[in-house]
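User: Just a sanity check before I run the rest of the batch. Below are the structure tokens for the first item. I only need the designed sequence back.
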């Protein structure tokens, strides 16, 4: 018995390329078309902002050296697979999501998906909150960290 990795619950036939790309799994990392230099530099800057100036500058220089020597990532999708995924993403009538069980990708109509979500949310177990609880949770967490025996540096990181 073969395991089905793509389940199409819509009436829209999937191209072979779309089926092939989705069969790789929803956690499959598509290789970028080029090295994302700006993204890498922004993330490095975000991390080194708290470091001493000399250390931060060394990291910047090393990052630039590595990026200058980098080459385009090897493509791990065919052109047809890439086009098929773009087409699926652009199709607002379809939604692709992971199956509840197993490692399958499910393709279904967005309207069906929205109906199923609405039905789940009608359950009395769910209710709309009057306000966003994040600020309260954050302030309580900070207070607990201040009262804890954890080192100040660790608390700052947390």
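Assistant: Here's the designed sequence for the first item:
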């Amino acid at each position: 018995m073969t395991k089905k990795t793509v389940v199409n619950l819509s009436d829209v036939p999937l191209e072979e390329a779309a089926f092939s790309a989705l069969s790789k799994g929803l956690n499959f990392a598509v290789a970028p078309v080029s090295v994302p230099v700006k993204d890498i530099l922004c993330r490095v800057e975000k991390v080194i902002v708290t470091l001493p100036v000399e250390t931060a500058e060394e990291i910047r220089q090393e990052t630039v050296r590595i990026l200058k020597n980098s080459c385009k990532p090897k493509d791990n999708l065919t052109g047809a697979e890439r086009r098929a995924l773009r087409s699926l993403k652009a199709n607002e009538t379809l939604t692709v999501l992971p199956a509840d069980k197993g490692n399958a990708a499910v393709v279904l109509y967005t309207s069906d998906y929205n109906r199923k979500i609405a039905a789940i949310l009608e359950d009395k177990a769910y209710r709309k909150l009057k306000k966003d609880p994040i600020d309260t949770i954050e302030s309580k967490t900070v207070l607990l960290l201040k009262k804890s025996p954890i080192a100040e540096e660790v608390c700052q990181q947390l």
